[in-house]
UniProtKB/TrEMBL annotation:
Listed name of the protein: Glutamate synthase subunit beta
InterPro entries hit by this protein: DPD_II, FAD/NAD-bd_sf, FAD/NAD-binding_dom, Glut_synth_ssu1, Glutamate_Synthase, Helical_ferredxn
Signal sequence coordinates: none
Pathway: Amino-acid biosynthesis
Top-rank lineage group of the source organism: Bacteria
FAD/NAD(P)-binding domain sequence ranges: 145-460
C-alpha cells in the first residue's frame, strides 16, 4: 500500500469533459487529461485491501491494488506490465467499461470508490506514449494454425493469446475494417478509431494475419476453414437485432440503431457512398431503448444537429442510489446518466410504443405510446401492464430502434452444425469453450449473449487457453481463477 492515509486525504477525481457546446461539434473524444500528481493521488486512495473485492468484481481479474500502488509510486512501466498481464486491451476497457470493479471497491461502502477505470486508461496511454507497448512475437512456432472468425474484442484477445502461444493465427472479418462493435457500433466520440488501429499494428507485427471483407459462410466456405486450420474459434458476436413488430414499423424513417451508428462511424472514416443516408439534422428524433446503444444514438443525433432528441425506456426509472436488494459489492441497477444524455435528450421511462404513424407517401410522422407498469409476483416472470387512458401521440421524423440483440446470426451455426442454448447462443461451456463439434470453439457475445467489452476480452483469453490445451495437450497461457498457472 503506497500511502496509508491516502483515502483520508484525497477525494475521488476522474477526467473532466470538454463543454457540451464544444464537443457536440465534432466526433473526437472529449476527456481532459489529468496531470501526474492528480493521478498519483488517485492511486494513493487505494487501501490495498486484504480481500480486494475490486479484483473479483472485474471479469478479467485485473490486479487492481497492485497497479494502483505502482501508479502512486510513479512506477508507470511496472503498472503497465501488471495491467497487461490480465488485460490485452486496457485502452478499450479504460474508456468504455461500466467498471464493475468500482462498484465492488471496498472504499465504495461509505466513500466514493477508487477511480480504477481512469487509472487503467492513464496507465495504458502512458505506456503507448513512452513506447513500452511493443510487439511480443512468440520465441518459437508450434506448427499449428488457428482461424479466428470475427475481430471484435473477443476475437482480438483470443488471437493475441494464441499467437503468443506460438500458433499461426488468421483473423477473418466480414467488414472492411477490424474491431467489431468497437469499430462500427461505438461512436468515435467514445472511442476514436486510431486507438484500435494502434493496437492492430502491434498485433500484425506479432505475426497475426487479418483478412477483411472475408465473410465466413458466404465468400469463405466453412469447409475451407476446416481443411486449412487445426482449430477454429467463432467470435462473431450477438448481432441479430431485436425489432418492434407493431403497425407502421415499415415506414420510411424507422431504422435500426445499428444501421444509423455503423453508417455514422463509416462517415467519420471518410465513406460517403451510402444507398440510403441516415442523418438526424433538423429532425425530431425518438430513440427507443435506454441502454448503451440508445445513448450512443443520442450523442450521434446531437452531433448531426437534430431538432429534438427524445428517449424511451420500457423499464421503470431506477433509483439514483444503490437499491437495498443489490448491496455492495454487487452490480447495482441504478439510474445511469451518460455523457451523451447530458448533451441533450428528454428521457421517459415506463413507456411502450404501440404504433408508428405515417403520411400517404409512407414517411414516418409520429408514434403512439402508452405508459406501462411492471407487476412482480413471487415465482413468476415480471408482467407488463398497460395503464389505461395514458395513450399519447408524439411527432417525429426519425425513430432509432435500440432494443438490443436476440442472439448470434444463424449462418455459422447452421453451416458448422452447432448446438445452441435456450437463449439461441452457441452452446459451449466455460469448462473448455468447445462446441459440440470437436476443434470448433466459441467466445464473446456469440457464446454468452449480448454483453460487455471486458467480458469479451475475458472470454477470448479463456478460450485461447483451452484451444492451446486442445492443440498441445497442455498450455502455459494464463487462466483466470487458477492458482497453479502463471498470469504472464
Ligand atoms: C452501440 C453499442 C455500444 C456499446 N457500448 C459498450 C460500452 O460502452 N462498453 C461496453 O463494455 N460494451 C459496449 N457494448 C457491447 C460490446 O461492444 C460487445 O459486448 C462486444 O463488442 C462483444 O465483442 P465480441 O468480440 O463478442 O463481438 P463483436 O464486437 O460483435 O464482433 C463480432 C465480429 O464478428 C464479425 N463476424 C460475424 N460473423 C462473421 C462471419 N460469418 N465471418 C466473418 N466475420 C464475422 C462481425 O462483423 C464483427 O466484426 C456496446 C454495444 C453496442 C451495440
Ligand atoms: S477494493 Fe478498492 S480500495 Fe480495496 S484494493 Fe480494490 S481498489 Fe483498492
Amino acid at each position: 500500500m503506497g500511502k496509508t492515509t491516502g483515502f483520508l486525504e484525497f477525494e475521488r477525481e476522474v477526467e473532466k469533459y470538454e463543454a457540451v457546446e464544444n464537443r457536440v461539434n465534432n466526433y473526437k473524444e472529449f476527456t481532459i487529461p489529468m496531470d501526474d500528481k492528480a493521478l498519483k493521488n488517485q492511486g494513493a486512495r487505494c487501501m490495498d485491501c486484504g480481500i480486494p473485492f475490486c479484483h473479483s468484481g472485474c471479469p478479467l481479474g485485473n490486479l487492481i491494488p497492485d497497479f494502483n500502488d505502482n501508479v502512486y509510486k510513479g512506477k508507470w512501466k511496472e503498472a503497465a506490465k501488471i495491467l497487461h498481464s490480465t488485460n490485452n486491451f486496457p485502452e478499450f476497457t479504460g474508456r468504455l467499461c461500466p467498471a464493475p470493479c468500482e462498484e465492488a471497491c471496498v472504499l465504495g461502502i461509505n466513500e466514493d470508490p477508487v477511480a480504477i477505470e481512469n487509472i487503467e486508461k492513464n496507465i495504458v496511454e502512458t505506456a503507448f506514449k513512452e513506447g513500452w507497448i511493443t510487439a511480443q512475437p512468440p520465441a518459437a512456432r508450434t506448427g499449428k494454425s488457428v482461424a479466428v472468425v470475427g475481430s471484435g474484442p473477443s476475437g482480438l484477445a483470443a488471437a493475441q493469446q494464441l499467437n503468443r502461444a506460438g500458433h499461426l493465427v488468421t483473423v477473418f472479418e466480414r467488414d472492411a475494417k477490424v474491431g467489431g462493435l468497437l469499430r462500427y457500433g461505438i461512436p468515435d466520440f467514445k472511442l476514436e478509431k486510431k486507438v484500435i488501429d494502434r493496437r492492430i499494428a502491434v498485433l500484425e507485427e506479432e505475426g497475426i494475419v487479418f483478412k477483411t471483407n472475408a465473410h465466413v459462410g458466404k465468400n469463405i466456405s466453412v469447409e475451407t476453414l476446416k481443411e486449412d486450420f487445426d482449430a477454429i474459434v467463432l467470435c462473431g458476436g450477438s448481432t441479430t437485432r431485436r425489432g418492434i413488430p407493431i403497425k407502421g414499423a415499415h415506414l420510411k424513417g424507422v431504422h435500426q440503431a445499428m444501421d444509423f451508428l455503423k453508417q455514422n462511424n463509416q462517415r467519420v472514416d471518410g465513406v460517403s457512398d451510402f444507398e440510403e443516408v441516415l442523418y438526424a439534422k433538423d429532425k425530431n428524433v425518438i430513440v427507443i431503448g435506454g441502454g448503451d446503444t440508445g445513448s450512443d444514438c443520442i450523442g450521434t443525433s446531437n452531433r448531426h444537429g437534430a431538432k429534438s432528441v427524445t428517449n424511451f425506456e420500457i423499464l421503470s426509472k431506477p433509483a439514483t442510489g444503490r437499491p437495498a436488494n443489490q448491496p455492495w459489492p454487487y452490480w447495482p441497477m441504478r439510474l445511469r446518466t451518460s455523457s451523451s444524455h447530458k448533451e441533450g435528450a428528454e428521457r421517459f421511462f415506463s413507456i411502450s410504443t404501440k404504433e408508428f404513424l405515417g403520411d400517404k407517401d409512407g414517411n414516418l410522422t409520429g408514434l403512439i405510446t402508452t405508459e406501462v407498469e411492471w407487476v412482480f409476483k413471487e415465482g413468476e416472470r415480471p408482467q407488463l401492464k398497460e395503464l389505461p387512458n395514458t395513450e399519447k401521440q408524439w411527432d417525429c421524423d426519425l425513430v432509432l430502434l435500440a432494443l438490443g440483440f436476440t442472439g448470434p446470426e444463424t449462418t455459422l451455426i447452421d453451416q458448422f452444425g452447432l448446438e445452441t442454448d435456450f437463449r439461441t447462443n452457441i452452446n459451449a461451456s466455460t469448462k473448455n469453450y468447445m462446441t459440440n463439434v470437436p476443434g470448433i470453439f466459441t467466445a464473446g457475445d456469440m457464446r454468452r449473449g449480448q454483453s460487455l467489452i471486458v467480458w469479451a476480452i475475458s472470454e477470448g483469453r479463456q478460450a485461447a487457453y483451452h484451444i492451446d490445451n486442445y492443440l498441445m495437450g497442455k498450455s502455459n497461457l494464463p487462466l483466470k481463477d487458477s492458482n497453479d498457472l502463471p498470469r504472464v
